[in-house]
Predict the 3D structure of the following.
Amino acid sequence: MLVDAARRLDAAGLNVNASGNLSVRTARGVLVTPSGIPPDEMVPGDGVVLAPDGAPVEGRVPTSEWRLHLELHRRRPEIAAVVHTHSPEATAAAAVGRPVPAVHYVVARFGGRELPCAPYATYGSAELAANVAEALGARGTACLMANHGAVALGLSLESAVALALDVEWFCGVHRRARQLGEPLVLADDEVDRVSRLFEAYGQP
Ligand SMILES: [Zn+2]
């Protein structure tokens, strides 16, 4: 299932130069994508099961962002999957280093009133993992990573991949809207209302 999800990211144009990586919680531990294997070359069994200290229990060398994945699974036990991408629109927005405001009601899927942006730290570092976990907080489901990319959480791999697509689309809408004029930003209480509607609709 990890390989299928990685290929879906690839097919959607989110997995730029094999930079995307994913993880899913399993009974054996957190299963992450391997380092440096493009999705079209991955085969079932290439995933890496990590121990709580990050040591590979089985499989290949894990993605260099294994600390990010482990930290998010540790801090957010209610989620099952993490997707990290360098997708173009999200990464461009992250290069500005600011949250993306509520220019569309889809923002409510991200668990807050804007799409937050975690401060920069070196890729693969524990500091980056902590920055992202703090930007997401207790309820956030997606955030940008300054000068790096984006992350999306899900109750399943499918929902995390779908949310990564929402992040990419939302950042693209914001960029185009800014080219046309000063975007209107939804009021906090409207975003809150949409969040309740999404919950009633059964969205993660
Ligand atoms: Zn990355």
The first helix runs from residue 2 to 11.
